[in-house]
Design brief:
four-stranded antiparallel β-sheet; 2 helices; 6% helix; Methylamine Dehydrogenase, Chain H; five-stranded mixed β-sheet; mainly beta; 422 residues
Length: 422
């Protein structure tokens, strides 16, 4: 009788063990529902689909122009975003040279010298070009006025850079700290995210404060360049303390607050959770990941974590159909299932820092900061093309996509326009 009981107990144990393994199989793929204790991506390499196949397709990439405009991005400045509107590219360099360029042929249309070191920008709001200075100033230039400044640039044989005329700002507002990201507009009001992670909504006409949200800052940090996301009647903001939160757009009331990347480490530097990428929303789900954190999917209404995947990002992700594409801080290009967080495929590129990826058709494009371009079949992950443009790119280089045309601004002040024919 005791033998029968023992055999029955043993069989039950084996069955329960088998069921347990079945119920937790998804955790082996790095998917932890509402759980921030996630292994480093390098620890799960053997569990993911490695991409080693290189095929070729009929792909033409033509450089329409590669033109030196100014002295580029210098020092510790964040990436200075370029804007494109009505066939004009608007760009500024760290030294404060502000320029309008014909997007079709790269011709300089006008330029002004702000005479101020620029550390954040550029954005076009309320018919003005707005910039953030290294002196913690918000500077805005009336678009109609600067475009009438038809100064012909003097090109030098040594640097091929332009000499600029001078123009004073139409708006100059002193801020508490530098701007961390470009200004955004809400009904003619300015939404500002500062270097200390505070969020302000102000009226630029009289400098009146509409509302503000202060952040609890850690003592040692670098400037996270993540821009707030305005969606419906809410503002989503990611902060360097590892949090993501939602505020009512009208009065700044906190709607929800979620810590998605808890601080951990022996000191403040190791605990840093820089907010670098911009929040992205797709199908009422918010996607965000901190540097030295992990990628999270959150319910946009409540802030509840749906899933987390163990990848750290320093630039923006792209979403296409049912997949998320991103460049990790350890030089992988990854494809992640949007609904579950499972890894579709990943590939390690060149041991080099990568820019944000961009998508044209069924192809995924990503540059290294040395200007090497890699192209993948976005669905299967096959590497289909490689090219070397020998460019110096910022890790947070932003690409402006207009159908088959791509525009971007280099670290050393070049405007590059390429056309991609598939």
């Amino acid at each position: 009788m005791n033998i029968i009981r023992y055999l029955t107990f043993l069989a039950s144990t084996l069955i329960l063990s088998s069921c347990s393994n079945f119920l937790t199989w998804h955790l082996d793929r790095g998917i932890h529902i509402a759980n921030n204790d996630i292994n480093n991506a390098s620890d799960i390499t053997s569990l993911n689909k490695e991409i080693k196949t290189t095929t070729s397709i009929n792909l033409n990439i033509d450089i329409i122009y590669n033109k030196s405009i100014n002295s580029g991005i210098q020092g510790n400045s964040g990436y200075l975003h370029m804007q494109k509107e009505d066939g004009v590219l608007y760009v500024v360099d760290t030294e404060g040279n502000l320029t309008g360029i014909d997007s079709d042929n790269g011709t300089i249309l006008w330029n002004v010298d702000t005479k101020t070191e620029i550390s954040s920008g550029l954005s076009i709001v309320n018919n003005s070009i707005c910039l953030g200075s290294a002196k913690a100033e918000l500077l805005c230039y009336n678009l109609d006025s600067v475009t009438k400044n038809k100064y012909t640039p003097l090109l030098t044989s040594l640097s091929n850079l332009s000499s600029f005329s001078e123009y004073n700002s139409d708006v100059n507002i002193q801020l508490l700290t530098e701007l961390a990201s470009p200004v955004q507009s809400i009904n003619n009001l300015f939404l500002l995210k500062l270097d200390n992670d505070d969020l302000y909504l102000i009226d630029p006409d009289d400098n009146k404060l509409i509302w503000k949200s202060e952040s609890q800052n850690i003592s040692l940090r670098t400037k996270g360049a993540s821009s707030p996301l305005i969606i419906d009647n809410s503002i989503i903001v990611a902060r360097d303390n590892g949090s993501v939160s939602s505020y009512n757009m009208v009065d700044g009331t906190l709607e929800w607050f979620t810590i998605i990347s808890s601080r951990s480490g022996r000191n403040d530097l190791e605990s840093q959770r820089d907010a670098e990428m911009d929040p992205v929303v797709s199908d009422r789900t918010l996607y965000y990941g901190h540097y030295q954190g992990e990628l999270n999917a959150l319910d946009i209404s409540t802030g509840d974590i749906i899933w987390a995947s163990p990848f750290s990002f320093i630039n923006n992700i792209a979403i296409s159909e049912n997949s998320i594409y991103g460049s990790t801080s350890d030089n992988f290009i990854v494809s992640i299932d949007k609904a579950s967080g499972f890894i579709n495929w990943k590939d390690n590129i060149d041991a080099s820092i990568l820019t944000e990826p961009f998508i044209i058709g069924n192809l995924l494009f990503v540059f290294t900061i040395e200007g090497r371009l890699y192209v993948y079949d976005k669905n299967e992950g096959h590497k289909v093309h490689k090219d070397d443009f020998n460019l110096e790119l910022h890790p947070q280089t932003n690409f402006i996509i207009d159908k088959d045309k791509v525009y971007f601004y280099t670290q050393d002040g070049d405007i590059v326009h390429i056309k991609i024919t598939i």
